[in-house]
Amino acid sequence: MKRIRKLDNLLARLQERIFVPLQVEVPLVYAPAAASERPVMVASDRAGWTPVNRDLIWGEPDGYYWFGGRARLPDGVDGKRIVVHVEAAFGSVMGRSDPQCLVRVDGAIRQGVDGNHREFLLTNDGRPSREFDILIEAGTIEDRRQLGFGCHLQVHDLEVDDLYYDLRVPLDVARLLADDDPRRHFILNAVEAAIDVVDLRPGSDARFRASLADAKAKAAAIYTAQDFEDKPVIVATGHTHIDVAWLWRVRETRQKMARSMATALSLMQDFPDYRFMYNQCVLLDYLAEDYPELFDRISAEVKTGRFEIEGALWLEPDVNIAGGEALVRHILYGVDYHRKTFGVRPKMIWLPDTFGYSASLPQLMEKSGLDTFVTHKLSWNDTNRMPNETMFWQGIDGTKVAAYFLTTQPYDSKSIGTTYCPNLKPTHVMGTWRRHGQQALNSELFLVYGHGDGGGGPTREMLQNIRRMERGIPGCPKVDHAPMRPFFERLLARMEAEPERFPIWVGELYAEFHRGTLTSVAKNKRNNRLAEIALRDVETLAVMAEQFAGVAYPAEEIRRLWDIVMLNQFHDILPGSSIGAVYDDSDEDYARFFAAIDALTQSLADALVKAGDQRLLNAAGRSRDGWLVSGEAPAEGQGQAIMRADGSTAHLLAVRAVPALSLSDLRQHLATVADGLSVSETHLENDRLSIRFDALGRMTSILDRKNGRDILPPGGLGNQLQIFRDMPAQFDAWDIDADFEDHPYALDRPASVTVVERGPLRAAIRFEWHYERSRIVQVVSLAAGAAQVEIDCFIDWHEHNTLLKAAFPVAVNAASVDAEIQFGHVRRASHRNTSWDSARFECSMQRWVDVSEPGFGVALLNDCKYGYDAKGSTVRLTLLRSPTYPWTEADQGEHRFRYALMVHDGDKQAVHDAAEDFNLPLRLVQGSGDVASKEASLVEIETEGVSLEAIKRAEDGDGVIVRLWETQGRRREASVRLHPCFGEAHLVDLLEEGGDPLDLQGGRLKLSFKPFEIMTLRLRGSR
């Protein structure tokens, strides 16, 4: 070790001569200005800007500042490479640097500058007295002040740079090799021989240059030495992961994108062999809007092949919470953007940082022509190591796709954790191979490198390191600096040629970490669910208006609405793991969304509904009986006033036989209901269910009259609100720790219990509890003839680090539960037999979770919750969390949501239909048209077990797209009836491509579904 310390010391001395200060400081002036004032600041003559001195104090959260000056080169710089070193109080905090800067030289964007990129090029050919204009945009995020800001000229000595890395990289390899490895001693001898001839004495530049040449010749022995011929190959591609929002706002990310891309483009000028990949369409789209100069340069580099576009998604979303159609749109719009913008057809799902992966993804990939899924996040598992990193991933429908997990970590790491943003030293290359658990199967691996999360990307040091490892260093895997896609094409060819050699992982890729993200910042999850439903309704109306009223389909308006939803599904926004300012912006986004979609909905209604008429919108693909809830009584003398938990009132009407996918006359579907209702402060009954409550407001009995059995086990308490201390050891907003149950808190008896509805359509009891500083109100209701009891909640929450669940022990003999995911459901154990079962103590769902035995079952439905747990016979919905980092006020304030407990006869289709009704209610539509539109169904699914997911106009404007899926995991023949306006049908993929004709006979299609299969149809009029 003494020998290595000596070499480290001498190399550090050599490194000091890479950048030689010229003792010239650039005089600067500065001015604060918002990012929106960029054009003004770029064009400014800087009159009135404040001179910068060493005592300047500046910087604040979300601050934006401009520094300008002229650099004049001194004597003695002829022909030399001159750079500017930026001096600032750079801080590196959680994946970001503060401040972050974008540099312009003589008006052209040159590079990003941050704590990892502190120099930028002025000229490769210095000339005394030559002047350069410098303008620097500087953004600050942290709540801390910057002291001073400066720019200093330096000579960048490329000869020293070259020799330094010739020696530094192999020395870093040698320190990781075993003491008895002869390659270690060979490298140390060679490095020592080279560094010993470097003449570090001042006084004679010629003597120094001659010694550099001698040292370089000696170092060459390292790279010409023979090593094991078949050593592993690590393909390395530059990249920067940029969180669209996290500890900063989206508007700051737009600047991060510019800085990161400017740096990547700048490095390509110095390193022609540099290969860089980027994937998120939304940020590329922002870049085109904000910095067209940079975007044009990227487009040019895409054509050269140095800038690689890959990754099919619009951005990197959460894929547990986002709905099924939303995931389709992320793929559809992402692929379309890359093709139209760059002429590139992406083939991969790139999700390195998302918190678990739905088992619906393989089918979505296969039906979009995508072949490879890449992540690393499951290496963060807190209990179990994934057994393989290269495999086939099989989804719930049986589709298999290739999956690859990145294995990069430091060579001496003791954890299973890997990274997608290493600073790429030999330790990461060697660690990539060491961490790989299938070395007998794969001798070629892949890594991406570059500073990420907050952007920045690769550095000169990383590129220098790669060049040396590409040349070959004994003891280090060979590095191939190359694009990403060709590596995966080679891997896919091997997997297709020998599939039996590669393991298969069946089902979801559950992340044993960050389980709290299914619940944190509940308001955003509710807005997401409501927005997805509103988009389904408006797309349905838009197709009706086009087909029945000749109204042009509002494609651009609808796409703008989808852009808002997709942006807010980013994997640090929707999961609730961002700072408060991000949610201020998200609130504004959703306010714009709902105002715009309400206006669009009304304009479509005006074209479809005659003034004075009242229509029922059924956006489901099946005829429905059910309930209409409206703000006021639409039919005089009919229905019933109902009470909501937040104190507001509404009106309830019973309706029957509402046609599928239609706008129907309300008067034709009004129904009367024999109530059979009975209610008091301690009981709630109809013809199907009888429910008893104790003094604390908990259900002590839920009797299913049809089956003659109590849903609750002896002593069991239904809808028990359970409160726990929620202080995870780390990652507050992200995590729920397994020991949360060790610290329960008691909820006192209700402050009030009141019967608020007595029929004839519904009976209801209002419960109000006070807990610490919070208020919990529930209206527990039972409709006439219903097999489900509904709980409407209003919570004014003012607790921190507190978890709230609603528990339902059920008298059902089952070792597992089923939970809905996108386009299907998964089965999960409710026991703790294995470490894998134990680690799955908080799970994701979409609209329902169900526990069943043959002929009987109990399901919990929800209208905006995504987390639950199941242990033994108890299922609990996770209602609220209140983390304090990174947002101290997360989940504070008012919450509105509903859930329901449903009894069924073992029929999952009944569960699906009930959940759809709970989330996609019949809606009252009123307009101001002159002529009433047709009342017929656009599409009707005549077979159980098949559901409509979406109806919309085709992206190319040619026809209507209908998306269907099989809901129960069974093969089935389905009949679908089409309106006469459709004369032909074709089966297409999720990208709306292909076009296999379907046999349309008598207005009906016969379709053969495989289990959980998604089918997309293109419908056209007769030709």
Structure report:
The chain is an alpha+beta fold and 1023 residues long. Helix content is 26%, strand content 31%. The protein has 18 helices and 59 strands. Strand 33 and strand 34 (709-710) form a beta hairpin. The chain is elongated, with a radius of gyration of 32 Å. The mean pLDDT is 96.
Q: Quaternary arrangement of the chains shown?
A: single chain
Strand order of the largest sheet: 37-38-39-40-49-46-45-42-43
Number of strands: 59
Q: How many angstroms does the end-to-end distance come to?
A: 82 Å
Overall body shape: elongated
The secondary structure category is alpha+beta
Poorly predicted tracts of residues: none
Radius of gyration: 32 Å
Kindly estimate the percentage of residues that lie in beta strands according to DSSP.
25-35%
What is the typical, i.e. mean, pLDDT?
Answer: 96
By DSSP (H or I, 4+ residues per run), the number of helices equals 18
Helical residues, percent: 25-40%
* Main pleated sheet: 9 strands, antiparallel
Short synopsis of the structure:
The protein is of the alpha+beta class and 1023 residues long.
Keywords:
9-stranded antiparallel sheet; 1023 residues; 59 strands; single chain; 26% helix; 31% strand; 18 helices; 6-stranded antiparallel sheet; alpha+beta
Q: What's the arrangement of secondary structure elements?
A:
Blueprint: H1 2-15, E1 19-25, E2 28-32, H2 38-43, E3 50-51, E4 57-58, E5 63-72, E6 82-87, E7 91-93, E8 96-98, E9 100-105, E10 108-113, E11 119-123, E12 131-140, E13 146-147, E14 150-156, H3 158-174, H4 182-196, H5 205-224, E15 233-239, H6 250-270, E16 276-278, H7 281-290, H8 292-304, E17 307-309, H9 324-342, E18 348-350, H10 361-366, E19 372-375, E20 390-394, E21 400-405, H11 426-435, E22 444-449, H12 460-471, E23 478-481, H13 484-497, E24 504-506, H14 522-549, H15 555-567, H16 580-608, E25 615-618, E26 624-630, E27 640-643, E28 649-658, E29 662-665, E30 678-679, E31 683-685, E32 689-693, E33 699-704, E34 709-710, E35 720-725, E36 744-745, E37 752-758, E38 762-771, E39 774-783, E40 788-797, E41 802-809, E42 816-821, E43 824-829, H17 835-839, E44 843-844, E45 848-853, E46 856-862, E47 867-871, E48 874-880, E49 893-904, H18 908-919, E50 923-925, E51 939-941, E52 946-953, E53 960-966, E54 972-978, E55 984-988, E56 994-998, E57 1000-1001, E58 1004-1009, E59 1014-1020
Parallel strand pairs: 15-16, 15-22, 15-23, 16-17, 18-19, 19-21, 20-24
Antiparallel strand pairs: 1-14, 2-3, 2-5, 4-13, 5-12, 6-11, 6-14, 7-8, 9-10, 9-12, 20-21, 25-29, 25-50, 26-28, 27-28, 30-31, 31-32, 32-33, 33-34, 35-36, 35-41, 37-38, 38-39, 39-40, 40-49, 41-48, 42-43, 42-45, 44-47, 45-46, 46-49, 47-48, 51-54, 52-53, 53-59, 54-58, 55-56, 55-59, 57-58
Helix pairs in contact: 1-3, 1-4, 3-4, 3-5, 3-12, 4-5, 6-7, 6-8, 7-8, 14-15, 14-16, 15-16
